Amino acid sequence: MEGSSDAPTFRFIRLNLSGKSFGFAYENATEQAIVFSEFEDELVTDELLFEIAQLFPQYVVSLDNGRITMAAHDFGTFGEPLALDDLTTKSENTDYLKITTLNIADGLAHYDKLVNNSISNKKMIQFSHRTFSLYIQKVGVK
């Protein structure tokens, strides 16, 4: 039976992102979701991830091996922010580095510098109150 607790059905919702056709569907009852393109060869860009983060600020948007996922995530408490420039700060806790920025290009430039020293390959983005936060998991150093 469709939608029964034994065989739940998670329907997808169509999204128009950057003028292209995408879908959004929950993977499970805990509101973990995926975003996917109508076309297999669609490239996932940073601009697309930031657009999704703005549409769904309650979730952290993640890119892991070409797969876009969304889920609520508690990163814990971060220490005092350190200014990287006028629009971007960096803070950290025991598990994550957090880059908070008002300017996407600026934030990505700092993210790229910091992620090059990490073996983490999962990009995580969240939007809140006109600012974007990018997270880098501290899993090891190259």
Characterization of this structure:
With 142 residues, the chain is an alpha+beta fold. The chain has two helices and ten strands. It has a ten-stranded antiparallel sheet with strand order 1-2-3-5-4-9-10-8-7-6, with helices on one face. Strand 4 (60-64) and strand 5 form a beta hairpin.
Q: What is the structure about, briefly put?
A:
The protein contains 2 helices and 10 strands. It has helices at 46-55, 104-115; strands spanning 12-17, 20-26, 33-37, 60-64, 67-71, 82-83, 88-92, 96-101, 123-128, 131-137. It has 142 residues and is α+β, with helices and mostly antiparallel strands.
Topology of this protein?
Layout: E1 12-17, E2 20-26, E3 33-37, H1 46-55, E4 60-64, E5 67-71, E6 82-83, E7 88-92, E8 96-101, H2 104-115, E9 123-128, E10 131-137
Antiparallel strand pairs: 1-2, 2-3, 3-5, 4-5, 4-9, 6-7, 7-8, 8-10, 9-10
Mean pLDDT: 86
Distance between the termini: 50 Å
Strand order within the widest beta sheet: 1-2-3-5-4-9-10-8-7-6
Largest sheet: 10 strands, antiparallel
Note the total helix count.
2
Low-confidence stretches: none
Number of strands: 10
The assigned structural class equals alpha+beta
**Cα Rg:** 16 Å
The proportion of strand residues reads 35-45%
Task: Give, in order, the helices and strands.
Answer: EEEHEEEEEHEE
Question: What is the overall shape?
Answer: globular
What share of the residues lie within helices? 10-25%
